[in-house]
Amino acid sequence: MTAVRTPGKRGAAVGRWLAAVLARLLWSVRRHGPENVPSSGPVIIAPHHTGFLDAPLLMATCPRSVHTLAKRELFRGPMGWVLRGVGQIPLDRDEPGRDLLEAGMGVLADGRILVVFPEGTRGAGDFAEMRPGLAWFAIRSGAPVVPVVFSGTGTRGRTLAGLPRLRARLDVVFGEPVTLPAGGPRTRSALEAATEQLREELVSHRKAALEILRDDSS
User: Fold this and answer.
1) Domain 9-217 sits in which CATH superfamily?
2) Are 87 and 65 in contact (CB under 8 A)?
3) pTM of the model
4) First to last CA, the chain
5) Distance CA 47, CA 147 (A)
C-alpha cells in the first residue's frame, strides 16, 4: 500500500480553481456564510454528506483551498491520479493508519484546511451517527471546526444519474466555527464526549441552515 503523505498546497489551489469553473458552468451555486471560514490558520470543515457532488462542490465554494479525507476506493486508476494531484488524501475508513493521521495533522500544522466528513460516508446527512475522527483532529490540533450543509447536491447514487440537472440551484451553508477546549484529556471517554459535543453543534447548524434556505426561497 502506498504511504499517505501530507499533500502540497499548489495542487489544492489548482483543484479549487478547476472546481469553481465547472460549478459556475454547470449549476447555479449560492454560498451562505463563507465569512464564517477563518481567513488564515488551521481549520477543520465538517460537512454533511448525502451525494457524491458534496466534496467537489465544497472545493469549489470554500473561500480557501481544502484537503479532503476521501475514501481510499476513489483513488484507483486515473481518478486516483487526479485526486492526489489536487491535494486530496486517501482514507481507509475501517483502519486509518498513522501515516494518514500524520498527513491530516500536517495539513493543519501548516495552517491549511482539512475536510473531515463526520459520518465517514454518505448517509441521511443528519449527523445521527458520527465517527470519532473529527473530534480526534479537533482535539489534537486545536483548530476550529466549521460545519457545512449542502442543498440540491443529489441522491446517494454513484452514477451520473445522481447528479443535479444542469443549471439546478445548489446551496452551500457555512456555519459559525466551533472550537473544543484546548489541552483537554485524550482518553477514549474524552473523545466520545467531544464527538457528542460536535454532533450537537452540527445538528444545530443543520437546523439553522434549513431555516436560512427556507427564508431565501420564499
Assistant:
1) Glycerol-3-phosphate (1)-acyltransferase (3.40.1130.10)
2) yes
3) 0.92
4) 51
5) 6
Which residues on adjacent β-strands are paired with residue 68?
A: 115
188 torsion bin: left (phi>0), alpha (psi -120 to 50), beta (else) = alpha
> Alpha carbon of 142 to those of 75, 178, 201: distances in Å?
29, 10, 16
Summarize pLDDT for 14-61 with one digit per residue, the tens: 999 999 999 999 999 999 999 999 999 999 999 988 888 899 999 999
DSSP string of 184-204, one letter each residue: ---SHHHHHHHHHHHHHHHHH
Task: List Cβ neighbours of 125 (8 Å cut-off, separation of 6 or more).
Answer: 48, 49, 50, 149, 150, 206
DSSP conformation class of 119 = T
Residue-wise pLDDT for 113-135, tens only, equals: 999 999 876 766 778 889 899 99
> Rounded to whole angstroms, how far apart are CA atoms 63 and 32?
11
Strand order in the sheet with 43-47: 28-32, 169-174, 145-151, 43-47, 113-115, 66-71, 89-91
Helix (H, G, I), strand (E, B) or coil at 215: helix
**Helices (H), ranges, the chain:** 9-26, 54-61, 77-85, 98-109, 133-141, 188-217
Q: How far apart are CA 111 and CA 126, in angstroms?
A: 29
Distance CA 92, CA 100 (A): 9
